[in-house]
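Show me a record, fold above all:
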Amino acid sequence: MSSPVRRFGLLFLAFYLVFIGGSPYYYQVFAIRVAHHVIMTALLLWWLIARLRADGIPKTPINSAVYALIALWLITSALALDPRIAFESAWFPITHAMLFFVIVDGFMRGRQRLIMETLFMTAALVAIAAFVQVIQWWFGWQPLLGADLPFPPTLPRLDQPFGVSTWLSAFAAPMIIVSIGWALTVRRADYKPPLFALAAALLIVLILAFSRGGFLAFAFGVMLLIVLRLFSRRALNRAVPIVVGVGALTVAIIAVVILISRDASRHAGDTLRADLWSTAVTLIRLDPFTGAGVGMFGRGHRLYRDGTYVDDRLSTAHNLYLNTAAETGIFSLVIIGAGTLAAMRVWVRQWRTAKRDTRKLRLEAAFAALAAFAVQSLFDTFTLTGIVVLPLVLLAYCITPTRFITDAVIRGSKLPAFAFAGLIAAFGVGLWLSDRAHAAFNASVTHQSLRDAQTALSFDPSMRLYQLQVDYLTAAQTDDLPTAIRAYENATALEPTWDTGWINLAVLYSRAGDDAAARSSLERAASISNWNSAAFGWAFLSEITETASQPEITAAYLRSITYPPPNIDWWISTPARRAAYERYTAENPIIPTSGDEYVRRAYAAFPDDPAAAQRFLAIAERLGPFTENIALARVDLAPSPDARRAAMIAIVGSRAISQNFEAVLYQGRRAQFEPLPGLTSPPPTDQDLRVWFELAQSFADEGDPQTARQVYELMIQRHPNLVSDQRARIDAAVRALEEP
C-alpha cells in the first residue's frame, strides 16, 4: 500500500473510531451500531488473517496479561448476572485489545511517525469540534446582549464531540502533555507552532469542560513530566524555579477544583459517586473472584444502590479500578497490575538506553500522559472506543522500541492470531443475529407491534428486554385484567428492578380490587428509586383506602415532591397532603432563578414592547427558569397567531419517557415503557389544560373536527387523573364536535 493511501486510510479510520463508530452515536443511531459491528469485524479479521499469513501477533511484554484478561472476560461473562448482555459487552474490550496489537504492529513496522501524526490530527479535530460548540454558544448569546446584559452570564461547559464533559477532558488532558512533549522535540521548526497551538487549544477546551478530574489529571501529568525531566539532569539548581512554578500551578488547580466543588450540582454528583463506589464494594464483596460480569455494573447497581437519590443513567462505578473489580473480580486487577509492572520495566529500560534526549523526552511525555489518564480514571470509567484509542496509542509507544521501515519485521506468534480470528468471527456472527433481532424490536417499539416483539424474542431468546416488550404489549393490548396482571407479574419476576413494571402492576392490582397487593408493588418500586411516582401512588392509594396512618402518608407524599408542587389546591385539600406541602416548602424554599426573573420581565414588557418580551424569553430559556413555565409563556407572549399556534402545538406534542432502565441494562437499546394512569400524579389544574382546550377549539372553529377530537383524546391520555368537572367539560366539547 502506497504511503499517501496508507496515510489517508489511517486518518479516515481514526476519524471513524473517534467521531462515528466509537462515539456515543453507536448507542444513539441503530444504523451506525450495525455498521460498526460489520466494519470492526471485517477490519480485525482482515488484519488477523494477514498476521496468520505473515508474522503473527506482535510480541510485547504484556501479551500474557492481555491474553489472560480476554480469557477472564469470557469466563466472567458466562457467569454474569446476565450472560447474554455480558458477552455482548465483552466485545468492546476485546476489540480494544485487538486495536492495541494493531497499533503495536504499526510501531514495529516503523510507522511511528504516521501513527503519531494521525493522533495529532485527530486531536485537532476534537479541539475544532469543541470550539464549534463555543461558537454556537456565542451565537446564541450575542443577539441577546445589551445594556442590561453586557456579557453572557454563563460560560459554556464543553462536551463535544464525546457528549460528556468528563470524557472530553479525559482526551484533552493527556493530549496537552503529549503535544507539548512533541513540540519540544520535533526536528522541523515549522512543526513547532502547530503543536504548541494544539496544546493551547486543548488547554482552553480542558478549562471550559470544568471537569475536576480533568484538572487533577492534568496537574499530576505535568508534575510527573517535570519530575522525570529533573531526574535525568545533574544541574538541579534549575529545579528551584520550576518546582515553584509547578507548585503554584498545582495550588491554582486545587483552588479551582474546590471552587467548582462548591456548586450545588457537584454536591449531588458527589453523593451519586459515593453511592456508586459503595455498590462496587458490595459487588466485590459478594463475588470477589468473577464479579458481576463484563458490563454488569449498571445491573448490579440497581440491585444494591440506595434508592433515596439515584440517577438511572449511570452504568459504571465512575472509578475504573472499582468498576473493573466489581465486574470481573480482583483477579483482573492482579492481571492489570502485573501487566503494568511489565510495561514499566520496558519503559524504564528504553528511557535509560535512549541515545537522544528528544527520544527520552517523548517517552516521558507519553508516560506522563498515560499516568494522567490513569489518575482521571479514579473518577470515571472510560469505555468508548473513541477515548480508549488514546491510551492504547500511548501504551504502545511506551513499550515499543524505535524501529524503521527498513528494519526486519520481528516475528510474532501465529497461534494467538488464529484464536483471535476465530473469536472475532464468532462475535461477528453473534452480533449479526443480535442486530437482526434488534431491528425487529425497534419496529415493535415504533409501531407498538406485539408481533414484531415476538419476532425479536424468537431471534434472540436470551434477551430479557424482548420478553419485557412482549409482556408490556400483551398487557397493553388486552381487555382481560387477569391476563394483563399475569403479563406484568412475569415481567417483574424476570426483571425485579423494573420500577415502571411494578408501578403498572400496582395500577392493575388496584383496578382488580387488590389494594394490599397494589401497595406492596408500589413499595417495591419506591425501594428502587425515590424519583419515580411510586411514593406518590402509595400515599394516594393508602389515603383513599385508609390503610396507613396520616404520618406515614405524609412522609410518602413528601418523598414524591421533587419540584415546586403543581396544583396547590389539591395539595392542601387533605391534612396529610397539606402537612407534606407545608413541610416541603419550609425545608425547600422556592427561590426564583435569573431565568424566572426574565420570564416575569417578558410578561411585563409584552404589552408595550413585544420584541423585548421575546428577547427576555430567549434569555430565560438559556438561563433555565425554575418556577416559571416558559413553554406557557411562549403561548401567552406569542408575537403572532401563527406563533401562538406553533407554541401550543409544541406543548401538546411534547412527551418525555424515561428510557434509562433499558439503556443501562441492555447496551443502549431503547423502549417506550409508559406508566399506566391512576397512581402517578395529582390531577392537572385548569391552567394546565387551557392550552389544550384552546388548541382543540381553534381546530374546531377552522372546520377540522377530526384534529380537534385528536387533541381531546391526547389530553385524556396525557392527563389521566382528570377530575370529574374537567372530564365532563371534555366530553361536552367532544359531543359538540359531533353536532351538525
